[in-house]
Queue: 2 jobs
Job 1
Amino acid sequence: MNELIKPETLFGKSSETFFGGCPHDCPDTCSMLFEVEDGKLLSVRGNPEHPMTRGGLCVKLKDYEQRHYHPDRLLYPMRRVGPKGSKQFERISWDEALDEIVTRWKAIIDQYGPQAIAPYSYLGNQGLVHGLNGGDAFFNRLGATVMERTFCGEGSCTAWLLTVGPTAGLDPESYIHSKYIVIWACNSVSTNLHHWAIVRDAQKKGAKVVVIDSYASRTAKGADWHIAPKPGTDGALAMALINSIIEQGLVDQDYVDNYTLGYEELKERAASRTPEWAEAITGVPVADIRQLARELATAQPAAIRMGVALERHYGGGQTIRAVSSIPALTGAWRHVGGGVTQFPVWEHPYKFDVMCRPDLIPEGTRVVSNLQIGRALLGEIPMDPPIMSMMCWNSNPVTQAPETDKIVAGLMREDLFLVSAEHFISDTASYADILLPASMGAEMEDMILSWGHLYLTYNTKCADSPGEAIPNNEIFRRLAARLGFEEENFKWSDAECLEHYVDWSSPACEGIDLTYMREHGFARLKVGTPDDRVPHKEGNFPTPSGKCEFKVEGAKNFVAPPFRQMYAGFQPGEDLDPLPDYVGARESHANDPELAKRFPLNIVSPKSHAFLNSCYANMEQKQQVQGEQFVMINQIDADKRGILNGDRVRVANDRGAFKGVARITDDVKAGIVVATLGYWRQLNEGTVNSISSSAFTDMGHAPSFSDNLVEVSLSN
Ligand SMILES: Nc1nc2c(c(=O)[nH]1)N[C@H]1C(S)=C(S)[C@@H](COP(=O)(O)OP(=O)(O)OC[C@H]3O[C@@H](n4cnc5c(=O)[nH]c(N)nc54)[C@H](O)[C@@H]3O)O[C@H]1N2
Ligand SMILES: Nc1nc2c(c(=O)[nH]1)N[C@H]1C(S)=C(S)[C@@H](COP(=O)(O)OP(=O)(O)OC[C@H]3O[C@@H](n4cnc5c(=O)[nH]c(N)nc54)[C@H](O)[C@@H]3O)O[C@H]1N2
Ligand code: SF4
Ligand SMILES: [Mo]
């Protein structure tokens, strides 16, 4: 226990306090304090010692114990007894459940081969042991289909690696030193709260905060300047900024000459991407573009925080290449607090190859995209053998993945054997044949990956699992034992896993080991401090040339390791443009006027403030904070359709429909509607993903959630 923390001063005297880590898919990865009595989690708090958590948790987690003991929590293994999706289950024992799974899988393997079995998981739990490892090694050993996981950030990763390489980039904590901060397609107030606190502190010290967002989000409302390009046109804005920085003579020529590649070609490419050209595409006035270019170049240190939403249209990857190029043009990288932040995860020393054992994948094993699972289950993508069984954990595709109607139709297949390990009977688990109860946060030992800061985070097993729930890794250990897998990794305890999964001997871990983590709860990686870290002052980009590559010779598309399957699965795809550029959305008035006639409105479906993806959307306290599913629409568009504030509306396109309550507001411009994500399908009429597309964007097989045309009409 950190000596600075006196448990008895924080919580009641009879209870004990343990270090926790928030396991959710959130860049903040908060360090928590769990108050526990008699094996029961009484309450949680943010760790006051952690420089980012600073003692505060978000609205989702502040009463985390209530999620642990929610009356709907799944407590026992169950078998489906009613029709698929009817949610009629009977309690069975663990032995019965695991025996049935293994028997069914063996029969499927005999008839179709192991690739007829597919895993489906994501970062519902970000623990190294129960999240990231969680099953990859097991399914690789089984010879199952490889499920490519490109839900989030993959286009961004590809673009980032091409331009600057696997660097943590600008430390989110260094923003306290920034004089100019651009938050681009990120709703920090809801999704990166603890970074927003640092941005606010910098703002109080005089930094100007600019938010570039398709609508007036909570974060945009806290900015000094909100710039609202039409969704999917950020690439045009970024190219025009490059044009304008060059045209206004604001390039840091010395930095460009020494530490970048392809400047002359970029200059030539950007020459025609003028602010006038960009105004017509983005709707952002020429004067604003020039001003932003001037301020970004001159108000140093200038910081850019890119949100994953930048990748969510066809040209998303190209957009991120353009934005990632800007700090090298202006020389922002020379300063503490200057540069651009993508995911600091690149400098975390995790051993993905040990966690996920890609070496166990039989050669020639097929890869299926988690974004296209509906099509895959229905055989719309040729599948030989067909997927006959799927096991789902740490993810809820029926709520979160695109083309939900197809996913539901696929899960309704009588011949599909679905296993679901869950905390609740989620929209996906509703279709399961076997349900397995999984342990939650305080009930298992782990270390939690962070993609949003430079700390390692430890989570103590300090509470008992209710009912018969067991941690994910124990589920896979038991399955592996039943299938006779002899590899030692299937026998490691959770603690042994942690010893193996982190490269404790790396320079970033100097002075840190598992014992240290247990005693302190968190540790900053040894990669410099937020007050002195200037990783690219003199170039040192981890690219093939060692420079920031505006131009990438022979650039090819790829799905970046480690997120492809959390292992190094680098597979070069089609040729890419060597230079960044603006590539318009697929579903737009410019690109597809016929489609736009039928579906004239561009929907954006970002995260909900009080839900964590689909987690918490079944909890009454969070529903009260979040309100019912709303559809934000401008007065002009509402008038055209006879919609009044508070009317129930139907949002539809050829892929499906969902319903919500109209919220007429100037926060969205005409032509755009906003409806947030996470509401459960079983509690609503459709969801935002009933209408979203499973088409990939230009890079990294990323999702195209913002590249989406719809029509809104009055509903009854
Ligand atoms: N339209 C639209 N769709 C989107 C997005 C968007 O912006 N717009 N965002 C996308 C993004 S960024 C992401 S990351 C994905 C997220 O998609 P998902 O990862 O599928 O999202 P969650 O809803 O968090 O689902 C996690 C599930 O895992 C369960 N779970 C949590 N912890 C554990 C555990 O320890 N064990 C087991 N067995 N289960 C556990 C939870 O109960 C929950 O049901 O959604 C994507 N979908
Ligand atoms: N409260 C809460 N916090 C979360 C999550 C959650 O579900 N709820 N999910 C977690 C996860 S998985 C992730 S990946 C992060 C993501 O966090 P963010 O990066 O903030 O992602 P989003 O909320 O999807 O979108 C952010 C903003 O981008 C805007 N946007 C969408 N498309 C465009 C576009 O084309 N151009 C521009 N300029 N703006 C656009 C949206 O209007 C939205 O305000 O948040 C994490 N934190
Ligand atoms: S969801 Fe994010 S902000 Fe909330 S407690 Fe977890 S890590 Fe912190
Ligand atoms: Mo995400």
Job 2
Amino acid sequence: MPVPSNTTDNGPPSHLAGGRLTVDLSALAANYRLLSQRSAPAQAAAVLKADAYGLGIKPVASALWAAGCRRFFVALPLEGLQLRSVLPQAEIFVLTGLFSVESAAAYREARLIPVLNSQSDLSIWEAHGWDDERSRPCAIHVDTGMNRLGLTPERARSLAEENALTGALTPILLMSHLACADAPDHSLNRQQLESFQAVRALFPQSESSLCNSAGIFLGGDFLGDLTRPGIALYGGAPVSGIGNPMQVVVTAETRIVQVRHVRAGQTVSYGAAPVVRDSVVAVCATGYADGYHRSGSGGGVPLRSAVPNGAQGFVHGHRVPVLGRVTMDLTLFDITSLGPNAVAIGDYIELIGPNMPIDEVAEAAGTIAYELLTSLGRRYCREYVGGTV
Ligand SMILES: *Cc1c(COP(=O)(O)O)cnc(C)c1O
């Protein structure tokens, strides 16, 4: 089966790259084990959509398989094929459903399990989800409040009745998705659970799945039979506002390519942000083309009028603020507080990692860890540590 070859590889070697990205596969495996424990008695699957949240579907899938994960979710049939080429035995669900009769053939060939989200999906799979005389397994997504994908509860109910008669579908999983799981007190959580359970009773042969990472921490009846963690596997905080129990998986660092001395009254970067004191500035070879968002630009930049401070880096034991606008390939850090001659050309500043928690970096850029990870880009030198890959 031809597999489109646009999965992430290790990127350029470090001497050709402006930044390096380290992915700790043993931390990933530890996170999977913690989420499995928290999911019990449900099983934990793993969500590997968008190239495993930007970290590389191949090494991530292999490490999770080695950690005991056997069931996976991706977003698109393309991703299902990529994952199948890495894990011939895995159970692979594809969340975004069926696009067409042609894609149904790709699903059958690669033994992918479509999540049927709409009447169109149902019709295609009822007609084309067969091998010889056997209807191939599928999942049914019922919408319980997100209004994104999924059948209405009413349609799911009539489907259960129809399918009991016709047997046209073999739904092995009934799933829904929580809109506010990261806000445990939100009333929609319980409403969605109740709505889901009412439909779930009509599919006694199917397993059930409701929880993403945050949902796992709601616990109890939310857990169902199978959970679907994504971001927490990769080290993101599953629930905002409380301590993050996950291990750090991703470290992103940028190379210092110049150190300059800027006088008070001079300006830096595009738009000429004023510098108020004599400053030492580290010019670093990572920018928004590497997913270091422009919205993380330094304090005093006009686009930051809503939030006073920009992103920070970490170098030689110190937090250092971004100075001026983040540009496509370069970012400036104010390293004055380190004193003169504290850094050398070629040293690295940590952008994301153990000292710069990903959720904090995301917040400084007005976004979420998910978006930071999936925008990391192709120019980092990638190193996978702590695994067998
Ligand atoms: C992305 C996604 C998940 C994983 O969510 P996280 O918040 O990353 O844990 C689970 N289920 C569905 C339907 C998703 O789209």
